[in-house]
């Protein structure tokens, strides 16, 4: 009886685990059963070479062991085909993706003499042979499309297994330049049932995404094997780019429109009662816009989006403009009420007019006019300063947007001396 046939067995029903396939890895307490005529288990006997004696009793094993590769770890080649990236949620810091994993390795126990048998390959359920158990570290949930995948075995013992999955993973978005942000999202696959002395991954990624009609697009895709790890692992990195069209229309255009409307409001006469109503209406409208903006923009402990600071500066500018209009208009109205409440008597007014003379340019209302001219001059000076501040704020923001960089604070798991990756 071939030695590799002794490893075939039936595993006990497994408890569903979100992060890994139902057949990955084998349960440690699952006993192997004999494949005699008394058993109802049928392992696709028509697909096997005729020389295999399926009626021979098999030894009981507690688990299906990893193939022995001598002193070197078993090499498992992994091809990652990414077919779709959707539902990028920057508020929850999550990204959903669809991909397929093609794993292949060599198991000499499954080899047979191809020259003596016509079968060039057989298909086995993955519960019947050793398969690497995979867990995604960043995954919130994983949906494996096939709960009972089939593995293809060649005569030389070469095994190939295809796994399709949809997953939602955590992603640390770099949102400093939102909505023109670029972020790298990683999916780390770990094989916790083995050690680095037993198993080694060789990963390669293939980008099969063809659609770009979405807010975030994949601009690059790469894989790497993480060094200095206790268990075997490989990492898939998705480089995402924000197309920014939706955010520009929803955020930047309304903010710039309100700021321009406020600048134009400064051209109204200070005595016009509509100016105060105009300024207050703009401020209230911007407060409503700012409250919805705070809910739409993400926030983090470090490297917050520049738009949060930009719209806060716009709010302060609108507030100062409204306060200036209310104060100067209130002073003019108070002076007008004071002049009406204390009029100059008639004989005294005539006597003052005679003392001034017919050619005098002085006016009984000169004090009122001087106060009005002073208010208008102050309003004109404030308008010039305000326009200059608006232009400077736009230039400063544009320069900061182009050249500013931010280095996020280290995560608690990476901060020294108590954190960092595990060491061998």
Topology (SSEs and partners):
Layout: E1 74-89, E2 94-106, E3 122-125, E4 135-136, E5 139-144, E6 150-153, E7 158-170, E8 182-190, E9 199-207, E10 216-224, E11 233-242, H1 245-265, H2 273-296, H3 306-341, H4 346-356, H5 366-403
The helicity comes to 25-40%
List low-confidence stretches: 1-22, 24-61, 356-362
Strand content: 15-25%
Shape: rod-shaped
Mean pLDDT: 78
Number of helical segments?
5
Structural class, judged by helices and strands? alpha+beta
Radius of gyration: 38 Å
DSSP E strands, number: 11
**What is the ordering of alpha helices and beta strands?**
EEEEEEEEEEEHHHHH
* Amino- and carboxy-terminal Cα gap: 40 Å
Question: What about the largest sheet?
Answer: 7 strands, mixed
Please describe the structure with a list of short key phrases separated by commas or semicolons.
alpha+beta, seven-stranded mixed beta sheet, four-stranded antiparallel beta sheet
Q: What features would you describe in this structure?
A:
This protein has 5 helices and 11 strands. It has 424 residues and is an alpha+beta fold. Strands 1, 2, 3, 5, 6, 7 and 9 form a 7-stranded mixed β-sheet that branches. It has a 4-stranded antiparallel β-sheet with strand order 4-8-11-10, with no helix packed on it. Helix 3 packs antiparallel against helix 5. It is rod-shaped and about 120 Å long.
């Amino acid at each position: 009886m071939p030695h590799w046939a002794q490893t075939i067995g039936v595993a006990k029903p497994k408890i569903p685990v979100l992060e890994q396939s139902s057949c990955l890895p084998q349960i440690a307490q699952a006993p192997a059963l004999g494949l005699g005529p008394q058993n109802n288990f049928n392992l696709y006997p028509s697909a096997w070479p005729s020389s295999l004696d399926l009626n021979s009793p098999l030894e009981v094993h507690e688990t299906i062991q990893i193939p022995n590769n001598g002193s070197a770890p078993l090499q498992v080649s992994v091809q990652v085909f990414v077919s779709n990236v959707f539902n990028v949620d920057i508020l929850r810091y999550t990204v959903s993706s669809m991909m397929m994993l093609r794993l292949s390795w060599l198991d000499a126990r499954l080899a047979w003499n191809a020259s003596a048998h016509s079968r060039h390959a057989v298909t086995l359920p993955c519960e019947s042979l050793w398969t690497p158990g995979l867990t995604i570290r960043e995954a919130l949930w994983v949906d494996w499309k096939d709960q009972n995948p089939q593995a293809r075995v060649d005569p030389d013992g070469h095994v190939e297994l295809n796994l399709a999955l949809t997953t939602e993973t955590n992603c640390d978005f770099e949102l400093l330049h939102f909505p023109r942000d670029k972020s790298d999202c990683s999916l780390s696959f770990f094989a916790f049932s083995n050690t680095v002395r037993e198993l080694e991954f060789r990963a390669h990624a293939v980008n099969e995404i063809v659609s770009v009609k979405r807010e975030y697009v994949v601009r690059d895709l790469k894989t790497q094997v993480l060094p200095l790890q206790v268990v075997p692992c490989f990492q898939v990195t998705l480089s995402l780019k924000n197309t920014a069209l939706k955010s520009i229309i929803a955020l930047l255009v309304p903010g710039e429109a309100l700021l321009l409307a406020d600048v134009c409001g400064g051209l109204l006469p200070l005595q016009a009662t509509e100016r105060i109503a105009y300024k207050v209406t703009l401020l209230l409208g911007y407060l409503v816009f700012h409250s919805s903006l705070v809910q739409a923009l993400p926030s983090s402990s470090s490297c917050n989006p520049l738009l949060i600071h930009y719209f806060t500066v716009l709010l302060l500018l609108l507030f100062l403009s409204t306060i200036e209009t209310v104060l100067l208009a209130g002073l003019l109205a108070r002076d007008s009420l004071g002049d009406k409440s204390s009029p100059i008597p008639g004989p005294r007014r005539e006597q003052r007019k005679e003392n001034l003379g017919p050619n005098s340019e002085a006016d009984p209302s000169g004090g009122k006019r001087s106060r009005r001219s002073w208010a208008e001059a102050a309003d004109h000076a404030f308008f010039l300063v305000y326009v200059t501040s608006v232009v400077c704020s736009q230039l400063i923001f544009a320069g900061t947007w182009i050249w500013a960089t931010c280095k996020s604070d280290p995560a608690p798991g990476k901060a020294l001396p108590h954190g960092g990756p595990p060491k061998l």
